[in-house]
Structure formats: C-alpha cells, structure tokens
C-alpha cells in the first residue's frame, strides 16, 4: 500500500472516533472505548490522533463541550450549574475557570454581556449595531465540495471534520482552502434535529480541475449575485443573535429583499487554532 493509502486508512479509523465524540459529548471520555472504535492499540492510538489532528483527543472534547456551553449561555436559559455538569466538570468553579481562560470572561458575564449582546439594542448600549456594518458584495457563482449535515447548526463541525478527512485521503488539502457553511432552514421554524446544512470547501482552481467526487462528498452550488455581507467577530455561539439583527433590523430597514437561495457563511479562520473571541465569519445573505 502506498503512502497516501496508508494515511487514508488511518483517516478512516480516526473519523469514526470523531463521529463518536460528537454524538456522545455528554458522556465521560473513555480512552479504551475510543481505541476500540479506531481499531488501534490503546497504548498508541491517541498519539496518532494528536499527530494527525494537531491536538489531543482530550483537547478536542474540551473544545467541543465549551463551544456547546457558549451556545447554551448565549441562546438559552439553562442554569450555569447544569451547563457545567453537561460539559463534564465536577464543579461550577472548575467550569467557570476553564470557560474564562478560553472565552476571556466568566460564564455569567458572557451570558449578560458577550459579543452576542451587541446585536440586541436593549442590551447593547454604545456598541449597538449600525446599518453600515453590512456591505453589499457581488459574488460569482461557484461550486463547492461539501458533506451534508442534518441536526443542530452548532454541530456542523462534525461534517467539516468528515470533509477534511476525505480531502486528506485524496491529497486535496491546501493552504488556500476556503471554508463555507451553507444553511437551508430557519431554526425558528424547523426542529433542531431536522435542520439541513452543508459543510463545504472551495478549492484553489488547479485542484478543482483534478477532483473526482465520491460519497459522502458531493458538489454544492452557490448562487451568484448580490449578497448582504455581515462580518462577525467572536464565538460561533453568538451567530444566532447576529442573524436576528441581520434579518430583523438590517433587511427590514434596507428596502432590499432576500433572494430565493440559502444563506452561507465563510469562515476566515479555524476554532482549532484561534481563540473564540478572534474567530471571524462572514454571513452572506443573498439579495433579490
């Protein structure tokens, strides 16, 4: 078996581990069980995981749990103590300390005055959003390689991990990849478990020509035309408030209408090597 084939074999095994982690975030981290899922030695598999993904499996689990916890804080009313327990922390103090180290503020302060609050006029004060923070941009129609995701939008990272695993197996990873999430449903009217989205990448032109698409990857089409683009800086958990402002304030006051096409997001950096407060996302709303 050649070098790329060997890597593909490991990618397939570790992809099963990532799927299990996403689906069992509420459960204790069981190294032995993850080794079984990977069909690798419990003495060595986590070293392989770290070498291939650039972080330990414990770091992955912590990052995903804190990402979900921030969503609970920004968008729900679950008590902080319950959030801490669901995130695998034995004490509220331990959870608060870790959350503050990652997000820069303790959980209670994040809930009240996180970056999501600037999209809500009653809470935002001097930081209230203004119409000029949205720019109109013409976007060329493009095709992106994508994997379908059904379920909470906050868990689309599972599909992105699967997509990057597929790209690695086909020697298509490149520094110039553009990461794009396409969102088809309104979480206000569609049940969370039924929300449809796609995790996608736009490859550099030389690589696009050479791609032969195979399941679970497919080609998704992004409509060309004018888009209202809101650049959001901060945790992904704040995105719901950003959408509420974009649709409920900007679109209504702009005099424009939304086109019959899905909204998409472009991620300008990665949560794997970027602090939540420094994540930059462009929300792109198609206009008629």
From TrEMBL:
Coiled-coil intervals, chain numbering: none
Domain spans labelled HTH araC/xylS-type: 15-113
Superkingdom in the source lineage: Bacteria
Molecular function terms from GO: DNA-binding transcription factor activity; sequence-specific DNA binding
InterPro entries referenced in this protein's UniProt entry, alphabetically: AraC_E-bd, GyrI-like, Homeodomain-like_sf, HTH_AraC, HTH_AraC-typ_CS, Reg_factor_effector_dom_sf, SmbC-like, Tscrpt_reg_AraC-type_HTH
Signal peptide (residue range): none
Keywords annotated in UniProt: DNA-binding, Transcription, Transcription regulation
SMART domains: AraC_E_bind, HTH_ARAC
Protein name per UniProt: DNA gyrase inhibitor
Native species: Paraburkholderia ultramafica
